[in-house]
Amino acid sequence: MKFRRRTLEMLGDLICGNLGADIPQGDAEPRYFPYRSSTYITEFFGELDMDWEHDGSTRHRWVADVLEQLLAEPHEGLAHPPESFSRVIDHLMSPADALNEGRERPNALRLLNNVLSREGFEAFYGEDQHCYLRHIGTNTVSALAKSPHRPLSLAETQRRAALAAFLDTCSEDALIEEVLLPLFRQLGFHRITVAGHRDKALEYGKDIWMRYTLPTQHFLYFGIQVKRGKLDATGRSRAGNANIAEIHNQALMMLAHEIFDPETNRRVLVDHAFIVAGGEITKAARNWLGNALDAAKRSQIMFMDRDDILNQFVVTNLPLPVSASLPGAMPPWGVRDARF
């Protein structure tokens, strides 16, 4: 990723706390970014576990050089800046560094967005009080730490509980449209299509198909078989559960049937199949599936259960479905009291 040099130097001015001519902040307006001398610039990057040390040159130009190198690191595409660059923006906008305004830092956010908008990005605060970058053209959000296995903050834990309550009561269609489609879009998949789920016409075992573009510009195609409840391996499944053997057969049908990609005007086979369960995939079901897959199919069929969905959805900072609410939040107007 490459930003224009003037944009990088304007970001350098913000990090250094300068009031340069390129920053739309006059002398009559209060300072909203703390002034950082050479030592404090080194400390700024040191707090991010980066080894950059200011060499005594012009501060904002030196910072621009550092940002340029951070943007050159590997990343997922033009809509996702490298994680290290996103961490620098989050650290710059820390509520603890608020100056001459409240912790929401509206004026500092305005000045930052005046700069980032030149490159098609905007910054915003999430519910966890971290500052994220959103690509204006695609509306995708760059997460700061995408690992779903990291410890969750209190706000993230509350959002996870709200989403879990939603999964307990939602339909299979709601699971697909309100949870899985936004999640896979955010994870970088393209051409996500719901394949005949409501009328079961020409479904051939798949509820969704989607495409992923490799860095080499080659395409991989994925099919998804979605079940709202638990997947088990019992001889007779309870109501609301599904047997893993049936799901396995549907996944094999999915891999054997072609799909038509209207963007390339070609019929293609699905490369990988996802088995996604809104409930638990029991240990017995996982063991049965592992034994049933031969070496050729083992890399083609993957599965995600309830915990995977919850963790991935939360760490990518996606908004909760409309019908889900945080614990203790007021319900929407009109459902608080039926008498009104």
Which features would summarize this protein structure in a list?
340 residues; Trna Endonuclease, Chain: A, domain 1; 2 domains; 5-stranded mixed β-sheet; 3-stranded antiparallel β-sheet; disordered C terminus
Computed CA radius of gyration, to the nearest angstrom: 24 Å
Identify the strand order in the major beta sheet: 4-5-6-11-12
**Segments where pLDDT lies below 50 for 5+ residues?**
329-340
- Class inferred from helices and paired strands: alpha/beta
Helix content: 25-40%
The total tally of domains equals 2
Q: Return the string of H and E elements.
A: HHHHHEEEHHEEEEEHEEEHHEH
The largest β sheet comes out as: 5 strands, mixed
Q: Give the N-to-C terminal Cα separation.
A: 54 Å
**Architecture of the largest domain, CATH level 2?**
3-Layer(aba) Sandwich
Number of helices: 11
Q: Report the mean per-residue pLDDT as an integer.
A: 82
**What is CATH's topology name of the largest domain?**
Trna Endonuclease, Chain: A, domain 1
Strand residues, percent: 15-25%
Shape: elongated
Highest-level CATH class of the largest domain:
Alpha Beta
Number of strands: 12
Protein name: Restriction endonuclease
